[in-house]
Amino acid sequence: MKTTQELERIKQELGQKLLIMAHYYQKDEVVEQADLVGDSYKLAVQAARTSAKYIVLCGVYFMAESARILARGDQHVYLPVFQAGCPMADMIDVELFHTHFSHLKSLMGDSLVPIVYVNSTAEVKAAVGTNNGSACTSSNAARICDYFLKQGKKIFFLPDANLGKNVAASLGIRAAELFSYHANEPLPDTPDKTRFITWDGYCHVHTNFSLFDIMKAKANYPYAKILVHPECIPEVVTAADFSGSTSQIMEQVKAAEAGDVLFVGTELHFVERLAHLRSDITVFPLKKSLCGNMAKTNLQNVYQTVREIETEKSTHEIDIIPDIRNNAHRALQNMINISEGKEAVHE
After folding, report:
1. Pick from 61, 263, 344, 346: CA 20 to 30 A from residue 334's CA?
2. pTM
3. What range defines the domain where residue 254 resides?
4. What is the DSSP letter of 173?
5. Cα 24 from Cα 36, distance rounded (Å)
6. How many structural domains comprise the chain?
7. Which residues touch 221 (CB under 8 Å, ≥6 apart)?
């Protein structure tokens, strides 16, 4: 109680200079203190559009990096827990990217463009920006990839293989045009018809869901609707009634008919919050699958971060080397431009 009161006091003292942002997967105690709650796309773009001088991002490290990359020079971005990482983001580093992208480009020529999921490090985003590629989120990945495919480009999608495969399927990429890349194998030759290449990263939260989970849900509730995140394996996405980002899943829940039973395959904290969104529908987790890194942020370390901002002695500020930030900004800005219909890609 005292922590909450002290946090509220500092928030009032700093006023519009402070913005606390929280990802949907955060604990309720953190979400309740946030000025803005959203998915990775909303959190990233809002950093550059707020007038706040101090931005506290309650999420994982790559999200805070993205906010810092897009934020203005007079803004400061803070992460309450530096140890809140993302295993998927660590499944490819900049050295691996350069080695494998160079190899693929030698086979496929200048038509190859890298598309990097925001669940990646600033260094990898910078390498993608340097190679005239784009970042993406689960909410806009299909639009980003479609933009380049219509230009006759071929896609190197990293690091999430499942999101890449699901996006490729949604865009009509045939099996013969899809190539799955495995980093622990010798550098391969790609088939001549290849148009879409996926890296072999994955999200442990979403690969936790299986066809058996869907069958079990349907056995108990035959008329239930299954909503899943596109980081799930393709078989689960195909069997589900809907696949979309966290914000898109929330919109589906809001639009459900009274009496509907929904099973949601994504992070548990978010599903539990959806279950309280409406009293006239029933929402179950498809399976209890928790993101341990998201769970590292709590009310106490959010308070500590804000307290350090007040005293100007912060140990939680995100700092990125200017060259990396500039090149990563190109990848993120390309994503924003395409997503918002500007479609002016910086080369």
Report:
1. 61
2. 0.93
3. 211-285
4. -
5. 10
6. 3
7. 261, 263
